[in-house]
Amino acid sequence: MSASTGLQRDAGAPARRLPNRANHVYLTFDDGPDAHWTPRMLAALERGQARASFFVIGQLAQRCAPLLRQAHVAGHAICNHGWSHRHPWTLGRARAAQEVRDGADAIAQAIGARPAWFRPPHGRLSPWLAAAARAEQQRIVLWSVSAVDWGPFGAPEQVARRVGRARAGDVVLLHDGPWLQNRPASTLGALPVVLERFAHGCCAPLPVPDATLGG
């Protein structure tokens, strides 16, 4: 891809915030898709006139391909969270490459396009996983604000308070999949309150990575 196009998918330095020139907040949902919770998150986002990014697990994406297509058509970004959610520190070179590639393949089969963004499971990045994302031309993104929508501190009012602190350019971590200690019921309960705090159209999907998106 030519640098003159302005599109440069560099997976070297993980992004945590994005330039705030568009005044956007970037809500991101991990660990889905889930047949029960993801449709409810999509409906809440639609009511709030918001768009978001969904970092999906490949093996779940295969099972819920129609749901991913629905989210894609509605204007949400579908992004790669790996094939099986294996902890990055347990992966050697070959398995790391397989996790990224198979996750991207599952998304491509579901929506007809390969993902532009990758987020490592648990937010942990290894050199092998970074190299695998780079080979797949996927930019790595973490987050600058966490909803902490899991475990004992994941009550809806706590989630809403944390997300409400987000400002333009922040990447916000939420969850729509009931993986491990995730509490998607709390996330769903907090979403209407969260979206009321942001102007309509403020919550946007992650853009196509380019050379201006700093790490």
Topology summary:
Layout (H helix, E strand, L loop, with lengths): L25 E7 L4 H11 L5 E4 L1 H6 L1 H9 L3 E4 L12 H19 L5 E2 L8 H9 L3 E2 L4 E2 L9 H8 L7 E5 L8 H14 L18
Parallel strand pairs: 1-2, 1-7, 2-3, 4-5, 6-7
Write up what this structure looks like.
This protein is of the alpha/beta class and 215 residues long. The chain has a single domain (11-197), classed as TIM Barrel (Alpha-Beta Barrel). 35% of the residues lie in helices and 12% in strands. The protein has helices spanning 37-47, 58-63, 65-73, 93-111, 127-135, 156-163, 184-197; strands at residues 26-32, 53-56, 77-80, 117-118, 139-140, 145-146, 171-175. The strands form two sheets. Strands 3-2-1-7-6 form a five-stranded parallel beta sheet. A two-stranded parallel sheet has the order 4-5. Helix 1 (37-47) links the parallel strand 1 (26-32) and strand 2. The chain starts with 25 loop residues before the first strand and ends in an 18-residue tail after the last helix.
* Unreliable spans: 1-11
- Going across the biggest sheet, name each strand in turn: 3-2-1-7-6
What is the CA-CA span between the terminal residues?
Answer: 20 Å
Looking at the structure, what is the overall shape?
A: globular
In terms of structural class, how would the helical and strand content be classed?
Answer: alpha/beta
CATH superfamily: Glycoside hydrolase/deacetylase
Please tell me the CATH architecture by its name.
Alpha-Beta Barrel
User: Percentage of helical residues?
Assistant: 25-40%
The CATH topology label is TIM Barrel
The radius of gyration computed from the alpha-carbon positions, rounded to a whole number of angstroms, is: 16 Å
